[in-house]
Design brief:
With 312 residues, the protein is α/β, with parallel strands linked by helices. It contains 13 helices and seven strands. It has two domains: 155 residues, 3-Layer(aba) Sandwich (Rossmann fold); 90 residues, no CATH class. The relative contact order is 0.18. It binds iron/sulfur cluster (SF4).
Length: 312
Amino acid sequence: MSPPIVLSFGGGTNSVAILVEAVRRGLHIDAILFADTGGEMPETYRYLWELQPWLERHGLPSVTVVRGSFRGGDYTLEEHSLRLQRMPSKAYGRKSCSVRFKIQPQDKWRNSWAPAQEAWARGEKVVSITGYDADEPWRAKHKEDDKYTYSYPLIDWRMGREECAHAIMRAGIALPGKSACFYCPSSRPAEVAKLAASHPDLFGRGLAMEEAAAPTMRGAVRGLGSNFSWRSVGESVRTQAALPIARDIDDDCGCYDGARDADRILAPDYCGSFKSIVPLPRESSADWPLARDWAGTTGPGWLQDDLFGGVA
Ligand code: SF4
C-alpha cells in the first residue's frame, strides 16, 4: 500500500498548477487541504467554490477547509487580532500568524486523518506536498521528519511561476489571484490602495485592526503595513498624494501555497500567550464579534466620513 499523499493548497497559482499537472501526469492525491484564516479575498473563496466541479471531473478529492479554533469554536485571525489589540504577527516581523492559522490547523487535521494514522501505524510516512516552485528552490528545505516526507513537485518538474501560470491556462481554467489575507502586512502600499478602491469594506476592516492595535505599536512598526500605516495610504488615495514609501519587508508572507517555513518557535509569542488580551466584550467566545459582523462596514467612522465620501 502506498503512503497517503496530502497537498497543502494555498489557493494561489502554484497550488492550482500542482492540481493541473497532477491530472496531466497521473499523480495521485488523497487529500487537498486549505487553511482558511477567515480573511482570504472574496475572489479566493469564489475560486475555491468554482474549482470543486473541476476537481470532481478529474477524480481529485474535494478541498477540505480547516480553520483555527479557540475554546472549541472556529476562530479567525481577524478576531484574534482585534481581541489581542495586535496586528497579524507579520507586521512585527514574525510569522506566527501563519503558524497558528495555517500550519497548526492542517497539522491537527492530518493527525486525526485515518489514512495518516494507518500509515504511521505501519511505520510509513505521509507525503506532504507543498507548492514551492522552481524559482524558489531554497524554500524547499524540509525533506522529512518523523511523520512526513516533504515533496515539492513543481521544483522536480522545473516549473517556475511563469510555467505554472501557463499550465493553468493550458488546462482551460482561470488563473487564481494572489492568495493571502486581505489585511496581510506584507501587502505593499499600491496593493493596499487597490484594495481600498476595489473592496472599501475590507480596507475598512484592515483599518479597524490597525486602529485597535495602535496602543501596542512600538519602534519602527507604524501600522498594518509594518513600516507604513494603512491610514496613510487612505489619506494618500483621498488627496491623490504619493503613496507612502515602504522599505521592502519579505517579498511574500511565508504562508502562500501551504508554505511551512514559518518558525514554529515563534508561535507562542503571539498566539499562545494571552497576557495582553483585551477583556472579552461578551460572555462567551461564541458571542464574540466574528469577522462576518464586520462585513459591509467601512471600519472606523472617520473613514466613511473623510476618505471615501460615505462609500460603503
Ligand atoms: S497571509 Fe499574511 S496575515 Fe495571513 S497568515 Fe499569512 S502572513 Fe499572516
